[in-house]
Each structure stands twice: as C-alpha cells, then as structure tokens.
C-alpha cells in the first residue's frame, strides 16, 4: 500500500537563523474509481481507507444504497517507475448495473446552478430523509467533540496538513475517524465505514469535521440520514440553506464552549 506521509527537504527561516532539515508531508495521490470496468471519476486523496472512500463516494452519489450493492472492490494493476503497484486504481463490481454515462454527480451539482436547483437535487435523491425527532445531544457533550477529534488525528500530528471527519454517538463516543488531504474524502471515508458496518441510515449519529462546512459536506450528511453536522470553522450559505431545507442541525465555529447554531437548534439540549 502507498505511504500516507513523505519526507522532503525544506529550509526553515526563523528569527534565530536558517535551518535545513527534512519535513514530513501528507501524501497526495490520485485514485481512479471504476465501476464494472468503466472509469467513473478520479479524486486526489491521501492513500489509506480507500475501500471506505469508495463506499462513501458511491453512496453519496446515490449509486449504491448499502454495502450489499457491491460484489467486489479490487485494486487494478498500476505501477510506478520502479514497477511497484501504486494502488491508485480501484474497480468495483455492482450487483445490478447502473447507467453511469448519464449520471450527474450530486457533489458537483451546485456548480453553475442556482441554490434552489442544488437543494432540489439532494431532496430528490436522498434515500433517508432526516426525521425531526432523530438525535439530540447535550451542548456540553458537543463542545468536547473537536478535542476528541483532534486527539485522534495521528497523521495531522505528523504533517499538519490533513482534514479529519469523525462519526460520534450522541453521548460523545467516537465510532470512526478518518483523515485525508481533502475534507470531502475524509467525510466519504467515515460514511463509507458506516455503510460497510450497516449503520446507515445514521439517525442517531453526529458528523464532526475539522474544516468548514461546505454544501458538499452537508449534502453527504443529509444523504446518510445524519441529523447533526458540526464544524470547527464556518459553513457556506448554501450549506445553511440545505440544512434548513432538510432538517439538518448545523453547527459552525465549534470551539470549546462557543458555537454558532445555524439550523436545528431543537436537537441541542
């Protein structure tokens, strides 16, 4: 399997002088996702948990509804200049064929479209609408989650360059944490874990991210039936609109005892 970190030479400048030393960086490599032998997409990701990533991506795009919809997921032959397998092409076989050539990815559905169209796309395609009575969390418990997420970020500790996503129970227990150079990939990885563990719809779970809450991340939470999304940074306007439209509780700027609640305040007790 490809490495998730790499060493590169760097020159560090500081008030005390100039130091040349190696630095540890997060690896970024392409992953081509093929479905039944047909190329579907290429995403730039940090290698690792690729099976979770593919499950989460295909679920978020409404291509699969459960892990049972996949028969196999296998790496294809692909080598670097030294003849080693790069593990950068993954082919999945579906139990029932899906016409991929006509598919418009939901994750890019907002590009060039108005907000209403993007919201309608998610509302039309989600398999698990968020129930108004699903999931409540104590504010004190919610305030502790960024610290728990940060404590589990082993690769961030080494590189300082990775996003994290975590799935928590409403009493604050961490079930799954994944890191990736792309925040959408990190979310796909934890949702893919939930798909493979038969935890979808995730009506009693919370998604916490170390980044801002974009429309794309809110969309992935809604598709999985996750009622609460919390981010340590800001949400986008369209993410707030989607949260209000779908019944998602959206919290931003979650930092210690302070937070902004943009929608679904009734779930915070």
Automatic annotation (TrEMBL):
<dbReference type="GO" id="GO:0005737">
    <property type="term" value="C:cytoplasm"/>
</dbReference>
<dbReference type="GO" id="GO:0016783">
    <property type="term" value="F:sulfurtransferase activity"/>
</dbReference>
<dbReference type="GO" id="GO:0006777">
    <property type="term" value="P:Mo-molybdopterin cofactor biosynthetic process"/>
</dbReference>
<dbReference type="InterPro" id="IPR003786">
    <property type="entry name" value="FdhD"/>
</dbReference>
<dbReference type="InterPro" id="IPR016193">
    <property type="entry name" value="Cytidine_deaminase-like"/>
</dbReference>
<keyword id="KW-0963">Cytoplasm</keyword>
<feature type="region of interest" description="Disordered">
    <location>
        <begin position="1"/>
        <end position="21"/>
    </location>
</feature>
<comment type="function">
    <text>Required for formate dehydrogenase (FDH) activity. Acts as a sulfur carrier protein that transfers sulfur from IscS to the molybdenum cofactor prior to its insertion into FDH.</text>
</comment>
<feature type="compositionally biased region" description="Basic residues">
    <location>
        <begin position="1"/>
        <end position="11"/>
    </location>
</feature>
<comment type="similarity">
    <text>Belongs to the FdhD family.</text>
</comment>
<protein>
    <recommendedName>
        <fullName>Sulfur carrier protein FdhD</fullName>
    </recommendedName>
</protein>
<feature type="active site" description="Cysteine persulfide intermediate">
    <location>
        <position position="111"/>
    </location>
</feature>
<dbReference type="Pfam" id="PF02634">
    <property type="entry name" value="FdhD-NarQ"/>
</dbReference>
<keyword id="KW-0501">Molybdenum cofactor biosynthesis</keyword>
<dbReference type="GO" id="GO:0097163">
    <property type="term" value="F:sulfur carrier activity"/>
</dbReference>
